[in-house]
Amino acid sequence: MSEVKKVVLAYSGGLDTSVILKWLGETYSCDVVAFSADIGQEEELDTIEEKAMKTGASKVYVDDLKETFVADYVFPAFRANALYEGRYLLGTSIARPLIAKRQMEIAKLEGADAVSHGATGKGNDQVRFELGYLSIDPEIKIIAPWREWDLNSRTALMEFAEKHGIPVPVTPKKPYSTDRNLLHISYEGGVLEDPWNEPPEDMFILSVSPQEAPDKSEHVEITFENGDPIAVNDATLSPANLLKELNRLGSCHGIGRIDLVENRFVGMKSRGVYETPGGTILRAAHMAVESITMDREVMHIRDSLIPKYSEMLYNGFWFSPEMRLLQNTMDQAQQNVTGTARLELYKGNVRITGRKSDLSIYHEDFATFEDDKVYSQKDAEGFIRLNALRLRIQNLMNR
């Protein structure tokens, strides 16, 4: 085991990183600087500095990164309509590059010779964190306790925490691994490991169940400029406050709950349950404005790139040259995506009820079923026959 003088730990205050903080100090006899990124965990951060110091940290950073998180990470992904395996809005994946980047900045400030994280050797986060670290400093030492220690289960971690007097939010009755930020909260582990088990209602934090949502629907208008949302119901808001407002609206109406079995980058399947209330509304509104402002061929090419973009983000390649290439393409496609979408929220559902834009390329004069002076329906005959030419030739050859 090589000598380490100071390590910066990505610290959430949960079971894993609380145990890791103590374990690092005992195992490496080094200073441990705890770093917590405030990206919307709310009350989870209320006592985190005090807790980290009591657990053995020599210094604690709690950095407010909410605006950066939404403006520079969430919004770019939503400009790309990112969606992993058709359902997952990538709430955890989007946060990891930002945390890794700031953690490396703190390591430089502190003169630390190592960084550490709480990701397990089975999951995706170890890849996301470490690809971020190594893209910034290829020589940095990385300590991944789950790949080193003999505490090979969460039961063992809870026993370690109890032995050392470390308070943790996980209990044998609720042994979920959770990750929360302004975009979502995720749940894994415990009873969820059996994909046949229905998630217990008392597990959910951000949203009411659709059954308990109001019996009256609510309408909301979201305004976009160049693919980014800038206002809700005509009120201009900062990126973080805008997403927070959409979370409030979505949570009230039971919107954004999903239960899925996904394919991890390391090769196994895992079951996760997610609440993404504001993001679910935002994606629907964004696509509604795109529908009247984006050129057909641009949209179709962009859509063909969404699975690859989402996979790269999920797998942790945010700082890669191929991601920069794709992000530039996605952003170029958003130049005219300016306008407003109107949506109805009701018992877990989001319904588009209107869309408008000064840059709209939808024109009633062309689309109308009434009499018009701009489109000759007879022109369609030649269009169809030319497109059918190869089919006609094929049929003649077969004869």
Structure characteristics:
13 helices; five-stranded antiparallel β-sheet; 2 domains; 399 residues; five-stranded parallel β-sheet; Argininosuccinate synthetase, chain A, domain 2; Rossmann fold; 14 strands; alpha/beta
Brief sketch in words of this structure:
The chain is an alpha/beta fold.
Polypeptide structure, described:
- The chain has 399 residues and is an alpha/beta fold.
- The protein folds into 2 domains: 6-65 and 92-174, HUPs (Rossmann fold); 185-356, Argininosuccinate synthetase, chain A, domain 2 (Alpha-Beta Complex), CATH 3.90.1260.10.
- 41% of the residues lie in helices and 20% in strands.
- The chain has 13 helices and 14 strands.
- It has helices at 15-28, 48-55, 66-79, 91-110, 125-136, 154-163, 239-252, 277-293, 296-315, 321-332, 364-367, 379-387, 389-398; strands at 6-10, 31-38, 59-64, 114-116, 141-143, 177-180, 185-188, 218-225, 228-232, 235-236, 257-263, 269-275, 339-346, 349-356.
- The longest helix is centred in the first third of the chain and has 20 residues, at 91-110.
- The radius of gyration is 25 Å and the shape is elongated.
- The termini are far apart.
- The model has no long low-confidence stretch (mean pLDDT 94).
The number of domains = 2
- Spans where pLDDT lies below 50 across 5 or more residues: none
Major sheet strand order: 3-2-1-4-5
Could you spell the SSE succession in H and E letters? EHEHEHHEHEHEEEEEHEEHHHEEHHH
Structure classification: alpha/beta
In the CATH hierarchy, the third-tier topology of the largest domain is known as: Argininosuccinate synthetase, chain A, domain 2
Q: What is the CATH architecture descriptor of the largest domain?
A: Alpha-Beta Complex
**Strand-residue fraction?**
15-25%
Largest sheet: 5 strands, parallel
Task: Supply Rg.
Answer: 25 Å
Which outline best applies? elongated
Count of distinct strands: 14
Note the gap between the termini. Answer: 77 Å
CATH C-level of the largest domain: Alpha Beta
Oligomerization category of the chains in this entry: single chain
Specify the CATH homologous superfamily of the largest domain.
Answer: Argininosuccinate synthetase, chain A, domain 2
